[in-house]
Design a protein that fits this description.
Helix content is 32%, strand content 16%. The protein is built from 8 helices and 8 strands. The protein has helices spanning 2-17, 80-84, 104-118, 137-148, 174-181, 187-192, 220-231, 257-268, and strands at residues 22-25, 43-47, 58-62, 89-94, 130-135, 157-161, 205-211, 236-241. Strand 5 (130-135), helix 4 (137-148) and strand 6 form a beta-alpha-beta unit. Helix 3 packs across helix 4 (137-148). The longest helix has 16 residues, at 2-17. The relative contact order is 0.13.
């Protein structure tokens, strides 16, 4: 009970008053690829912990929104106090929408990881302790990076909340699939973004959280991904809450908010 009360006393004021991050253009010299929408600019907002508390860990966050819009607040900025209070930097990515160019979101997310590594010394970050976090379609993006990235864009761990994983009809979130791949994608393209098919023994460790009654993104997405992580010997922790539907993010109205936060905190301390 004491731990619960302490957690609430610390977290509620932090979330209420928030923390101002530093916004930066992701591609100051212009993006590598163009999605055809000049008003859609990729940015990151960097939240750094107090220098004395910094652990060297950082998380690149990809909010969800069906590859159509971004839920920047409760799946992005509002997470900053939770992480910075633990000495973890949070970098929230405003990635560009595909608009028919399916490589665009992953290009932005991968560049965000590279950006953090380029600034690791100045930001007091360990370049080998950078994770990626995503929600819903942002979870698909995060798992795409976790399973497809190479070189200095590879994350060291992944955190996925109610993620879209598959692009298969009947399993995927249809809006996310249509917005990313188009209405009639070729079989090869669907397979490329069926992220459960691309898990290997080198895929980074994973934390998964979702609700049993999610009707927007079916839990089978996470179940199939976890199965492949397990089969390939990748450390993974999956938490399925009895209810909560889809899109709860860090909202305290989610009935299992406290449990979720404590379990995520414990997982982050486990490695």
């Amino acid at each position: 009970m004491k731990k619960t009360l302490l957690f609430l006393l610390v977290m509620v004021p932090a979330i209420a008053f928030g923390q101002k991050g530093t916004e930066m253009l992701l591609w100051p010299d212009g993006p590598r690829s163009n999605n055809g929408d000049v008003s859609d600019t990729a940015k990151v907002t960097v939240f750094l912990p107090n220098e004395k508390k910094a652990t060297g860990r950082a998380i690149v966050c990809c909010p969800g929104g069906g590859y159509q819009h971004l839920a920047m607040q409760h799946e992005g900025f509002d997470w900053a106090p939770f992480f910075t209070s633990q000495g973890i930097a949070l970098i929230v990515v405003k990635y560009r929408m595909p608009h028919g160019h399916y490589t665009i979101p992953a290009e932005d997310a991968e560049e965000a990881i590279r950006l953090v590594r380029r600034n690791a010394e100045a930001w007091h970050i360990n370049p080998q302790d950078i994770g990626i976090m995503g929600f819903s379609a942002g979870g698909h993006l995060a798992s795409t990076v976790a399973t497809h990235a190479t070189g200095d864009a590879v994350p060291n761990f992944q955190i996925l909340f109610y993620p879209v994983i598959s692009m298969e009809q009947g399993t995927t979130h249809q809006g996310s699939r249509d917005n990313l791949l188009g209405k009639a994608p070729k079989r090869k393209l669907v397979n490329q973004y069926n992220n459960e098919q691309h898990v290997t023994k080198h895929t980074p460790r994973c934390f998964l959280a979702l609700a049993h009654d999610d009707r927007s993104v079916l839990p089978v997405n996470s179940l199939n991904y976890y199965e492949q992580l397990y089969s390939n010997g990748v450390p993974a922790s999956m938490h399925i809450y009895p209810s909560g539907g889809h899109g709860f993010g860090i909202r305290q109205s989610f009935a299992y908010h406290l449990e979720m936060m404590l379990e995520l905190k414990a997982w982050l301390r486990s490695f």
